[in-house]
Amino acid sequence: MTDQTRNHMHLYFDARSVNEGFARLVVSAFMTEMNPTLEELADVKTAVSEAVTNAIVHAYSEEERQVELTCDRCGNELTVVVEDRGIGMEDVKSAMQPFYTTKPEQERTGMGFAFMEAFMDQVAVDSRPGFGTKVTMKKYIGKENG
Amino acid sequence: MEREYQIEGAEMTYRMPKEVDHHKAVILRDQMDRLIEAHQIRRLVLDFSETEFMDSSGIGVVIGRAKTMKFYGGTVEAVHLGERIQKICRASGLHRMITIKEEDGND
To answer: Which residues in B lie closer than 8 A to residue A53 (C-beta atoms)?
Structure first.
């Protein structure tokens, strides 16, 4: 018998700001099966929005390329991966510091990673200059109800 | 269609959209700054009664407008924030930068 608590989805979309809302919608639809509370749903949507926005704002400076979004469910564990093949980051540690931003003129607050960490249970960032950035986030759904 | 903003003298109330993200931020920033300058606005009220989603890009818009208003010697306040938007504001420390009037439950 197949495990009903396992599910997987994988998606590519253009690195355009109009797709930020689309990515949030896709992830919320994916996690509906896990019976999340409204707060859990909103937390994940916020974190996804931050990661996808980062990829769109920072990864590609010239030509418009794509962002990759993967969701996995295993029991009550949700894993969301947001990946780009853009410029990458030299110093991930600095980039993750609250208020660190390379684009203050665009009113970027530098709060993106802090928000991801605040709203998800685990956040891991893997980046290589010239190769891209991969953000892996996990959240355990339903832990508030025991 | 109803307009997003209402101007009375030097006061502007701006109805924030349902989702305040990076996609909307660019449009919001340009429109508000244009109106602030054209109408010499000195008191900006951001009405969040219709807003269901906001992320750090939205926080950037609010902080940016607070800076614009400070430059003109004016003020910004945020009103009618639902529970989620309050949580986002607290997480960002925005409540220490501008006046926030939370939803009072009677509306």
So the answer is: 21-22, 55-57
B82 part of contact set with chain A, CB < 8 Å: no
| Buried-exposed string A103-138: b where 16+ CB fall within 10 A, e elsewhere | eeeebbbbbbbbbbbbbbeebebebeeeebbbbbbb
Contact B23 A21 (CB under 8 A): yes
Touching check for B13 and chain A: CB below 8 Å? no
pLDDT of residue A105: 85
Q: Can you tell me the distance from the alpha carbon of A44 to that of A64, in angstroms, rounded to the nearest whole number? A: 26
pLDDT of residue B105: 46
Is the pLDDT confidence value at B104 over 60?
A: no
d(CA B11, CA B43): 5
ipTM of the complex: 0.90
Domains of chain B, CATH where assigned? 5-102 (3.30.750.24)
Structure tokens at A22: 């689309």
Asked if residue A2 is part of any domain, the answer here is: no
Residue in chain B nearest A109 by alpha carbon: B60
Instruction: Cite the active site residues of A.
Output: 50, 54, 108
